[in-house]
Amino acid sequence: MNKIYCPLNYTMKLIGTKWKPLVLFHLLEGPVRSGKLQNKVPHISNKMFTQTVRELEKDNLITRKVYPVVPPKVEYELTEKGKSLESILKSLDSWGKEMSAFS
Amino acid sequence: MNKIYCPLNYTMKLIGTKWKPLVLFHLLEGPVRSGKLQNKVPHISNKMFTQTVRELEKDNLITRKVYPVVPPKVEYELTEKGKSLESILKSLDSWGKEMSAFS
DNA sequence: ACAATAAGTTACCTAAATGTGATATAGGTA
DNA sequence: TACCTATATCACATTTAGGTAACTTATTGT
């Protein structure tokens, strides 16, 4: 008892992984091509990148737009739901910047 | 090329796990005894609770205060660094609340 | 003697996350 | 014909996270 329902659980389920916040963060500026987005995220593997955007798409945080050309062209873009994370993502980033300034 | 250094990485290393944000969130009100804190976090196991607070302590986000009594009494409390996460934690929580309101 | 207590540890196990390397695609170009 | 391109998938291995149950500790109250 005295247990508290905490919506934070829901949030962590959606974006509580190593890569998701990074990918979302780099989409804040607008739509980005797949390869370029992947390049913006240091050290992410091919597989994890794909897996991450797939899940973000499933959870309606980003959209995936495929152009039927060869070689393929794919763009990812934040949905409204994704955009609503903007201030949180920026806060997390600037908190990290402040904190890593020490040590 | 075009890779961007992102302090978000640092942030995610410190608090990017299933339980850490939850534990920190429940410390926002002030110091809490170990058992009581654990009870506030639904479904956390004994082991994960201990492991989580150990890591938070190591990263200087919380302090652990042991009273030399029997049976043991231990209190956890946010450090200044931990307190600086307050607005982020609350934002994550209220974002979760808004979003889980749909679906 | 022995049970109760609060906080934690230990050994052992399963599940989830992440990484690596090879392969697929299909049209344009050398 | 063979290769290049951007995007993605597959099989497999490894690493990390998380769970369960038993055990420890030292004192007080029975």
Automatic annotation (TrEMBL), chains A, B:
Give every HTH hxlR-type domain span.
6-103
Q: Report keywords, A-Z.
A: DNA-binding, Transcription, Transcription regulation
Which Pfam families does the UniProt entry name for this protein?
A: HxlR
Gene Ontology molecular-function annotations = DNA binding
Q: Kindly give the InterPro entries that the UniProt entry links to this protein.
A: HTH_HxlR (IPR002577), WH-like_DNA-bd_sf (IPR036388), WH_DNA-bd_sf (IPR036390)
> What PANTHER family does UniProt report for this protein, alphabetically?
TRANSCRIPTIONAL REGULATOR, TRANSCRIPTIONAL REGULATOR, MARR FAMILY
Please state what the protein is called: HxlR family transcriptional regulator
UniProt source species: Leeuwenhoekiella palythoae
